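User:
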Amino acid sequence: MLAGFAAAFLVGDMFLAVRGASTRSVEFLYGVAGFSLAQVFWTVGQLREARPDWRVFLALAVPLSAFALVRLRPPVLPPAAEVAVCIYSILTALSLSVAVSTRRVFYVCGIALLLFSDLMIGMRFVRLPGSGELIGPLYIAAEACLLASFFWGGEWRISHGRISLRWYAIVGGLAAFACFVVAACCYPGGGYNPFRQMLSALGRTEVRRIAYPPCHHWFLAGMFLAAASVAGVWAHLSRRYEGWRRLAAGWGGALNVAGLLTIALVPENVLVEIHNTGCHLAVAGGAIVAAARFRKGGDLVWGCWFLVLIAFFTVCLEVKGIPFNPWVTSTQKALILSFAAWAGWIAWQETP
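Assistant: Predicted structure:
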């Protein structure tokens, strides 16, 4: 842990913060290497009591790598810097996967805040307004949490039993829905029509020649909240089930969250192929979780409803005679709202 702090402060901060190394200089690579070493040392330091949760790693490594390789590619960053940042992103995902396994409150918060601070740095590279002001406070809070974890021997541990899954999922889901509603209201030029436009239109980095309109920020917040909400539900199911159902709930949930975060970090107007890959991951992951819940009663009704919606959505996409608007766009909203309601229903059912 001390070696990690030394690498972060004496190497990473020295080159990136103190000297303000340009992204096209070799000093920038030294700084990224310093923070990469810090993540490696911190990860190794925690391996004595925990192992990586590979589902968390998958859920984070896929979208972070996509962000680095797609949105930070030249001319935003030189090729060498882009590769270095991508490697650092993967190491951060691995570090957080170990932190989650330790269940240390300050340690988890420290690595998570550091990840958000780094993400804001990436957003500053792509000129997202307001991202630069968040970097410093998030980084200071992250280091404070990591130092508290290092010096406090009796650190609190996250207890899953104390978290009300019901209210965690429902409040988070409603907050995400509210963000999407606000994003729709902020859509430039006469409003957003949910029956004629895909939901991803709200997340575009440019709408009607306006770069980063307010709807983009609200869409981003909504996607993050949605991913965090369903991640808690899938994590609960993976702990509750056994055998193949446990694997399906855990890894299907990881794919679902990875897809949601990829959709958020790679908008459709940046690279539609990667954005659509995120959509496919989200749907496939959700379908795998649904298969784990596919049994008699209400779960059977939900499963059949999803099959009907997905089949109808596929037909609308493939048959040329069916107009894209409003059939595909409206079916997409029905599928998203149904999936959100299903996750909330699961949380309500699973909470004692």
